[in-house]
User: Fold these one by one.
Assistant:
Number 1:
Amino acid sequence: MSDDLIPLEQPAVAPRLPGKVMLRATADDAIDALAADLLLQSIQCVRSLSDFHLALSGGSTPLPLYRRLMYDPAYRQLPWDRSHMWVVDERRVPFDDERSNFRQLDDLIGQHSGIPEANVHPMMALEPDADRRYEAELLRVLSRRSKGQDRLDFVVLGMGNDAHTASLFPHSPALFPSADANTRLVRINSGPRVTPPDRVTMTFDLLNAARFVAILVLGSNKRDTLARVSKAYEENAASSDFPVEEFPILGVRPHAGDLRWYLDHDACPRE
């Protein structure tokens, strides 16, 4: 086939998703958009609430975002000295394991941002009651705020190729009510439906109480998953009965906060 007959790739189409879709041409542009919103939210929270509670996910996708926050002069106004850093989820491995999300976050942000050591909150994931401990710490620290303001201010999430987010995998135990029937903010997630090793993760009850949730999805390897998620959302939008067990990312729906998806063109479906 001659070069002039090679079909051009169709343009990216912003998928229909819950919340607001922030579609940008490149991954860098999408990261810039997320970073700008994070900066704005942090400043507003410190002005109105005196501090800022930020929950971060691990993994490869948000690493460029975290680096940008550290080296780009545009984000030097981030009030790290008044911020708390929480971990969205953690593998049940030691902190010196390269798979540890906290190791990644602490190396990039905890050690270089100027955030007070007491405001950095790792999950003690190897403890048998790691979920209960982290939930208790969240409640203790957030209770310093007035009622109604005792919630996370900004959460950064990603999406796996199986549509999981945090460590909430399709059909995994943490998607379902806890055995004690109480609302749980943090759960241990284990079993054959969880990509090993076992995890400790924030639950939808905690994530959906946040003031602002950002979902960062980049690259062509996420295109098929994003298309399936968008289709599932469209097919069930009228009833709001989304197939969360199959597509956990659709369980992210803040009750009284903003939900924004930050996408690059490569991640988006084509017509």
Number 2:
Amino acid sequence: MYTDTAGEAEIRAAFPQALAEPVEAGWEDRWKAFHRPARAGGLWIGPPWEPPPASEPTVIVDPGRAFGTGAHPTTRACIELLARLERGSLLDAGCGSGVLAVAAARLGFAPVFAVDADPVAVAVCAETVRSNGVHVQVASADVLRDELHRTDVAVANIELGVVEALLVRLPAPTAITSGYLEAETPRVPDWEPVDRLELEGWAADVLARRH
């Protein structure tokens, strides 16, 4: 626990045997060292305290309250696969911080929709969209229960069980899925694998709906 002098006194009053150790100056910002920029699909993806390169398209993501910094292998793999696809409309199902939705907009997908059931994720995604100056329609929705936008492509970087349940009801002909290990793959009737990318033990797939 981190606290100040007054807080230490209160803790000692309740727990006389408590031990205290001083911390080095700047401890509150030390976590930032773990969040480094990454590149995927021709995009530079990094936190707001890192200076972005002037010559590359960028995605700025604050690694705070919602999942998705851009550095995780599943996120990078999804963006790499997005960059290979023909551009069109896109749904980010379970958007978290909004990094995939913003990356898709940067790559030229439009219109882009981003939904999540977590109100914190929706708020963070909306802020990520604003800070990057792109156009993404952000809304609250449960991807397994609510009506979803019909788009050309959907991307879902969640866990395998949710991916498979989502594919059953997804109104899109093409899906990019991730959030699972390279030994795993979605197995859902009416969908067939088209492309796959494995990074650091994780996997992402491009799936096409069978006609």
Number 3:
Amino acid sequence: MVSLEFERTSEAERLERATSLRDRVRRRRSVREFSDAPVSLAALEACVAAAASAPSGANKQPWTFVVVTDPSVKTAIREAAEAEERAFYGGRAGDRWLADLEPLGTDADKPFLETAPALIVVFAQRFGEAKEDRHYYVSESVGIAVGMLITALHLSGFATLTHTPSPMGFLREILGRPSNERPFLLIPVGLPAAACTVPDITKKSLDEVLVQV
């Protein structure tokens, strides 16, 4: 055990920090129209490092973050993702699912997978290099890390999208990842296009999501 490094602040400062973070995070929007302007890999690495500091079951840290900037690899990912999306929109998804997606204006075409200057593909490690190296609460742990990653990217000035073509096994094949890793999430990262628009949607109010007992 080592001594905890902890910054003690006043109640007023904690509230100020919390409300400032709330206001900044609530301005985050999912973006599907990206500029092709390059971004700093050093900044992306810093955001990934922040995400990789997330808590995890038994501190196994069961995640791998693959940053893709190679245009040919992005093209391969787009082609494979669109094949799955065509199957999804063409019959795999039920009528209710498609109706719920309609206000978002999504379809099987995913040009942002090539336009965005970087893709971050998050993999969940089911176990370590050997099957005996068991990992615990993998989905929960990787989910926490992804939340921290998206927040870090947003606060650093990047636009993002959480993209989950299903199934996503093609990502492991294209990126040459080992069999103990399964694709968890695909995140295009960059700056929004100059004429970028987003769906006119709202979030639930605090009263709808917070219960105090």
Number 4:
Amino acid sequence: MSVANDPGPSEKAGIYHVLLASLFVLLALQPYAHVAEGLFVQLAFAGLLLAGLAAVAARRRLFVVGLILGVPAVVLLFVSGGIPTAASGVLAIATLLLISFVILRRILKHPVVTSGTVSAGLVVYLILGVIWAKAYWLVEHFRPDSFTGLSGTADIVVERDLFYYSYVTLATLGYGDISPVSPQARSLAITEAIIGQLYLVVMVAGLVGLSLTQRQRRPDQ
């Protein structure tokens, strides 16, 4: 599919704003993850996946792949009554990676800074935190005691704590209240911190450069 047929961030600004809002809703609901056995958080997460799939709908093949991955992930959330499962975690990670890939591809192919571009860039950054939160949960699920400082052993509580830990690591705050102790957990933490910082540096520098270029071209047009 050509660039002309693939809508850029400006054409998809509305859905990126919705995606960004859904991510903030997911963040805001984390302190209440235990309410109704995590159902509200999982509903917010399902909304995030569905909004993400809507964002990639213009790319038919990728949209089909997204449906194959994302729909079962959402269904498993409801079948399990809001309790996270390994299968839903793996499918969710794959779906979010696909969504991030499509959004980043559009940003790079349409080098024009708009509100949609900024929202798209922020969406990818925040999705990184969700991806790693799911990955941390999978590590703890298959290798218990991979993290110290967790406030409980129930899957819902562990997922909530690791969601918090993921964003603390992504922002390189390093409070130290939760710490990775297994090799797999430590490797994931290092990777998230590096990728999070590299993404911010590259994305911010790129957007600033594009914005300056646009301003320089305006007087000549």
